[in-house]
Amino acid sequence: MSTERFPAARQARPAPGALLLCRAEPESVAPAAQLLHERMLLTPAGAEWSVLVPEGTPWLHGGEPVDRVVTGWATALAVGAPWPVLAVWWDADRGGFTLASGFRRPVGYDWLAHGIPAGEDEAMRTFAARLGLDPVPEMRALDALTKPDPAADARARVRGLLAILARAGVALPAGLAPGEPADRLSKAARAHPQARIVEWPVGREAVRAGLAAVDRARTVPWPPWPGDPRDLSLAQVAVGLPLAVWGVRRRSGGWVVAGVLLVAHGVFGLTYGIVRPRD
Question: Beta-strand (E) ranges in 119-221?
Fold first, then answer.
């Protein structure tokens, strides 16, 4: 009886994943996160920080890279909120981060799978400045992440970044570690006693959610908007429409979401003036 040899099983490629860190309390993050139309888990992540854990994995089903998806989400959240959003992500080939704040151009940095830096040093300095990190010890630690290190792969680099941000108050719940697959991240987030599910409501609740997000955003504008709030709403619609169209043409779901959210936030802002007129 002959014995057949089966080919050795291919080593499984590490699953991609992502986390969205918001520099705000969960009560402020939840209304804005609802507008993403993505089911997520929201938990505290240290002093004045919250973390959003995506329940879905559109980067696995839509063919779009995880970094592009979460950059769109972070941008969409930041343009309608008075606080910055940091997306950290990883896949089989790379790992990195994107920081979005207001209407500023997002800044990011990434590393190849074996930890080789693939970003620009200036981006790291801009990142530190926007988060108000100490220009001496913390910038020195960030600068070390831009240097070759054969002992650190991409995910270790992202973990190193989060360790530095611990000095700024970031404290991820147990189990939310870069490199973990999406299902494990969701399980870890659900185990947190203060975790909540954030998803898009329906009917009148959707309108209330939009108005609540606008209401919170107007409390502390980011960046400061000196003119009529209606002008800001019109600007959001004007920027959001071409951004959504560009995302459709590029088949970029993340940027489509960013464009649609900009338009939605602008429309809600215009509606806000009618429903809740200024004194």
Answer: 196-198
Q: Are 49 and 187 a contacting pair, CB within 8 Å?
A: no
Question: Structure tokens of 32?
Answer: 């804005």
CA separation for the pair 136, 103 (Å, rounded):
27
Segment 174-208, tens digit of pLDDT = 999 988 988 899 999 999 999 999 987 654 454 45
Closest-CA residue to 49 (of 171, 159, 138): 171
Q: Distance between CA atoms of 179 and 232, rounded to whole angstroms?
A: 39
pTM: 0.75
Dist. CA 42–CA 14, nearest whole Å = 24
Token pair of 201 as six digits: 């409501």
Residue 75: the pLDDT is 87
Q: What is the 3-state secondary structure (H, E, C) of 116-173?
A: CECCCHHHHHHHHHHHCCCCCHHHHHHHHCCCCCCCCCHHHHHHHHHHHHHHHCECCC
Phi and psi at 80, nearest 5°, equal -110, 15
Strand-pair partners of 53? 41
Nearest to 16 by CA among 158, 152, 178, 255: 178
Query: What's the N-to-C CA distance of the chain in angstroms?
Result: 91
The full set of domain ranges for the chain reads 17-196
pLDDT above 90 coverage of the chain, percent: 47
